[in-house]
């Protein structure tokens, strides 16, 4: 029976998962290399923005079920939830996963379960076994024995930022073990807090399923973003066009935006392209369309600046996060646009992001300001549809709105 769980990586997925397990009265040891995150969690507080998570973490810490530290410790099960970015050549960077695996290897004991949650290229779960074997040749793994000492599985997260606490419980989960026994052990762990269906498959199918889900969304967003470019050229209101087209009973076009951001949709399709470059033609094209959209928005802003009646008008960009009502700036097209604008335009560039108080990710020529200060700018660019902007009065302003009416 699993009584103690160690969660490696206490970010946007790891911390909610750790808190959820602790709420079920399992002993949870959170591990992260970020000392600030560790200290904050041990105070019963959170270092990220996610509704309801603060209450969950506070209860778990004060109840004695959740603690955080910077070094791995023995446990019955280990869940790895660390970043998986890509290199400049778009190939996957598995260094965080490798470092996490190698950090827990010395404390592994016979009977342990290791679950990878990080979105990863196909074959990564098997690769984890290789890394463990290099450090712990005394332990048998599912890749070299039908009765291994360790059980290994891949169980991808599939939650929406801003609704993570709810979706961790309600969403179906894919359980991809390297053996049937691995799957059953992982299923027992997730059944402690998941009310959705636990779908058992093999590890490779589970890995590809996560990539497929995000590639599907990326392709559909690319269609909407490409429509916005076409409509701009043909002088058509894209928002009205989509509303009209979506009245067809079998059409559901998404809303265009400033691009695609976050650590999932903006990254995961490239893992498929890297694994099957000759076959993944549509997926590659969709990525290219969505990666181009921020550059198109930037040129739209610069054109508006050049044609403004004022010399060097001030520009306020509303929104930095990769999606509405969160503080997550990872792979954010809005942040990319603001930083490129600040680098290329020597006028005043303001950034309005109500979900953060400070950041070191802004270009030196851009200033983080309040909504009120942003509204005083000559040109307003709406990059993210935060609820906090709904009450703003943009009348009489030069407005570039790339996220919908």
Q: Could you walk me through the main structural features you see in this protein, from its secondary elements to its overall organization?
A:
Residues 316-405 form the UDP-glucose/GDP-mannose dehydrogenase C-terminal domain. Its EC number is 1.1.1.336. Belongs to the UDP-glucose/GDP-mannose dehydrogenase family. Keywords: NAD, Oxidoreductase. The chain is of the alpha/beta class. The protein folds into 2 domains: 4-196, 3-Layer(aba) Sandwich (Rossmann fold); 211-401, 3-Layer(aba) Sandwich (Rossmann fold). The chain has 13 helices and 13 strands. The strands form 2 sheets. Strands 3-2-1-4-5-6-7-8 form an 8-stranded mixed beta sheet, with helices on both faces. It has a 5-stranded parallel beta sheet with strand order 11-10-9-12-13. The model has no long low-confidence stretch (mean pLDDT 96).
Q: What's the N-to-C terminus distance?
A: 53 Å
Question: In the CATH hierarchy, what is the class of the largest domain?
Answer: Alpha Beta
Strand line-up of the largest beta sheet: 3-2-1-4-5-6-7-8
- Helix-strand string: EHEHHEEHEHEHEHEHHHHEHEEHEE
Based on secondary structure, the structural category is alpha/beta
CATH second-level architecture of the largest domain: 3-Layer(aba) Sandwich
What fraction, in percent, of the residue positions are helical? 25-40%
Largest sheet geometry: 8 strands, mixed
Number of helices: 13
Record field, number of beta strands: 13
Beta-strand residue fraction: 5-15%
The gross shape turns out to be: globular
pLDDT averaged over residues: 96
Count of folded domains: 2
Question: What's the CATH topology label of the largest domain?
Answer: Rossmann fold
CATH superfamily of the largest domain: NAD(P)-binding Rossmann-like Domain
CA-atom Rg in angstroms: 23 Å
* Spans of at least 5 consecutive residues with low confidence: none
Oligomer: single chain
Pfam family, one: UDPG_MGDP_dh
Protein name: UDP-N-acetyl-D-mannosamine dehydrogenase
EC number: 1.1.1.336
Enzyme class: oxidoreductase
């Amino acid at each position: 029976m699993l009584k103690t769980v160690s969660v490696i990586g206490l970010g946007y997925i790891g911390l909610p998962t750790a808190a959820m397990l602790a709420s079920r009265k399992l002993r949870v040891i959170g591990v992260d290399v970020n000392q600030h995150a560790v200290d904050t969690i041990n105070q019963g507080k959170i270092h990220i923005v996610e509704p309801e998570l603060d209450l969950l973490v506070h209860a778990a810490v004060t109840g004695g079920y959740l603690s955080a530290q910077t070094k791995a410790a023995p446990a019955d099960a280990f869940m790895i939830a660390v970043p998986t970015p890509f290199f400049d050549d778009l190939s996957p960077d598995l260094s965080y996963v490798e470092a996490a695996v190698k950090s827990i290897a010395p404390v592994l004991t016979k009977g342990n379960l290791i679950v990878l949650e990080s979105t990863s290229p196909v074959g990564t779960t098997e690769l984890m076994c290789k890394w463990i074997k290099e450090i712990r040749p005394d332990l048998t793994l599912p890749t070299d024995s039908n009765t291994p000492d360790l059980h290994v599985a891949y169980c991808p997260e599939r939650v929406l930022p801003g609704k993570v606490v709810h979706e961790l419980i309600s969403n179906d989960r894919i359980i991809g073990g390297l053996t049937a026994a691995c799957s059953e052990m992982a299923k027992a762990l997730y059944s402690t807090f998941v009310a959705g269906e636990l779908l058992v498959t093999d590890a490779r199918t589970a890995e590809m399923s996560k990539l497929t889900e995000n590639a599907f969304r990326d392709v559909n967003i690319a269609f909407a973003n490409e429509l916005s470019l076409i409509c701009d050229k043909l002088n058509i209101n894209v928002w009205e066009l989509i509303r009209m087209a979506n009245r067809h009973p079998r059409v559901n076009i998404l809303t265009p935006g400033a691009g695609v951001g976050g650590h999932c949709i903006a990254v995961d399709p490239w893992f498929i392209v890297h694994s099957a470059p000759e076959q993944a033609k549509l997926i590659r094209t969709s990525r290219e369309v969505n990666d181009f959209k921020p550059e198109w928005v930037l040129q739209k802003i610069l054109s508006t600046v050049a044609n403004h009646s004022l010399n060097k008008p001030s520009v306020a960009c509303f929104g930095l996060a990769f999606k509405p009502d969160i503080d997550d700036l990872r792979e954010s097209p809005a942040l990319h646009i603001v930083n490129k604008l600040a680098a290329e335009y020597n006028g005043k560039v303001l950034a309005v992001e109500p979900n953060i108080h400070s950041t070191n990710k802004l270009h030196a020529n851009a200033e983080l300001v309040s909504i009120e200060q942003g509204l005083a700018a000559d040109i307003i660019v709406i990059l993210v549809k935060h609820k906090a902007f709904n009450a703003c009065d943009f009348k009489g302003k030069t407005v570039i709105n790339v996220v919908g009416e």
